[in-house]
Amino acid sequence: TPTCPLGPKLFSKLFQYVPCAAAAIKTYFNETAYLPCQFINSQNISLDELVVFWQNQEKLVVYELYQGKEKFDNVDPKYKNRNISFDEENWTLRLHNVEIKDQGDYQCFIHHKGPKGLVPSHKMFPPTKLLVIANFSQPEIMEGSNSSSKSYRNLTCSSIQGYPQPEEMYFLLTTENSTIKYSTTMQKSQDNITELYNVSISWSYSGFHDTTNRSIICVLCVSEMCLFSKPYDIVPPKTHPPPKDDILWITALSLVIVGVTVFFLVRWKRKKKQPDLSREC
C-alpha cells in the first residue's frame, strides 16, 4: 500500500508509518466517535516516554496524554468538559456523545521525550474526517383541519430530528394504472442548539371523489437514502342503499298498485262476458 509522499520527512525511525489513505468516519448523533492515531509502535515505547495529543481542523487541542497521564493545560475549553477517553490498545481517541458541531478533520501527533527534550515522532496524515449523521423520523402524512372546501383536503407530511438536511421531499400518488410524483416546496427549520433539522411539505389534493382506489406516500431522501411514510389510502365513497323504512313503503305502494290493477282487469273481463240485452230485444 503506498504511503504519503511526506511520510519520511515527518516521522522518525521509532515508528512505522501507516498507509496514507484515510476514509471518512461516520458516527451517529449522540453516540461515540473513534478517532484513530494511525501509527504502529514498532519498538513498544512506553506511554511514559510519549506525549500524544489530537487537534481538530481549527488547530485546537482536543485531548492530550502527557507521559501516560491526561493533561488539560493545552486542551481547548470547549473540550475540557466533554466525555473523552483514550484507548491505549488501539491508540484511538473516543469522543463520546458526538454533536453535529464535532464534524471536521482530526489529526493525531506524537512526541518522544528523550534526553534532549520532546522530539516530534509522528504526525497522522491525512487527518481523519468525522461526519456526524442523525436519522430523520419516519415521514408522517396528516390531514389538515382547516380545509375550506369538501372538494379538496390539505395534506402535510413532516419528519423531525435529522441531519444533514434532506435533498428532496415529495408525494407519490399511486392508482391502479400509474404512479405520479408531486414535488412541492420543502419547509426546513434547524435547532439552534442541536443543529438538527425538522422538515415538512404540504399539498392540496382534490381527487377524493374519484371512483377508484388510490394511495398517497410521502418520500424523504437524505444522502442517497430515502424514507417512506405509511400509505395514506383513499377509498371511493360507497353508494348506500335506501333505509329500511323507505324499502317497506315502496314495497307496500307497489303491492297496492298491483292489487288495483288486478281488480280492474277482473271487472273488465266479467263485464265483457255478460250478454248484450239491447240486441236481443
The end-to-end span amounts to 138 Å
What is the average per-residue confidence, as pLDDT, rounded to a whole number? Answer: 83
Rg of Cα set: 40 Å
The CATH architecture term of the largest domain is Sandwich
In terms of quaternary structure, the protein is: single chain
Number of beta strands? 21
The major pleated sheet works out as: 7 strands, mixed
The assigned structural class equals: mainly beta
Instruction: Give the overall silhouette.
Output: rod-shaped
Subcellular location: Cell membrane
Subunit structure: Homodimer. Interacts with MARCH8. Interacts (via cytoplasmic domain) with PHB1 and PHB2; the interactions increases after priming with CD40. Interacts with CD28.
Keywords: Adaptive immunity, Cell membrane, Disulfide bond, Glycoprotein, Immunity, Immunoglobulin domain, Membrane, Receptor, Signal, Transmembrane, Transmembrane helix, Ubl conjugation
GO cellular component, one term: external side of plasma membrane
What do these coordinates show?
- The protein has 281 residues and is mainly beta.
- The chain folds into two domains: 110 residues, Immunoglobulins (Immunoglobulin-like, Sandwich); 95 residues, Immunoglobulin-like.
- The chain is 15% helix and 41% strand.
- The chain is built from four helices and 21 strands.
- Strands 2, 5, 6, 7, 10, 11 and 12 form a seven-stranded mixed beta sheet that branches.
- Strand 8 and strand 9 form a beta hairpin.
- The radius of gyration is 40 Å and the shape is rod-shaped.
- The chain starts with 6 loop residues before the first helix and ends with a helix.
- The N terminus is likely disordered.
- It comes from Loxodonta africana.
- InterPro entries: CD86_IgV (IPR037677), Ig-like_dom (IPR007110), Ig-like_dom_sf (IPR036179), Ig-like_fold (IPR013783), Ig_V-set (IPR013106), T-cell_Activation_Regulation (IPR051713).
- It is a single-pass type I membrane protein.
- It is found in: Cell membrane.
- Its main location: membrane.
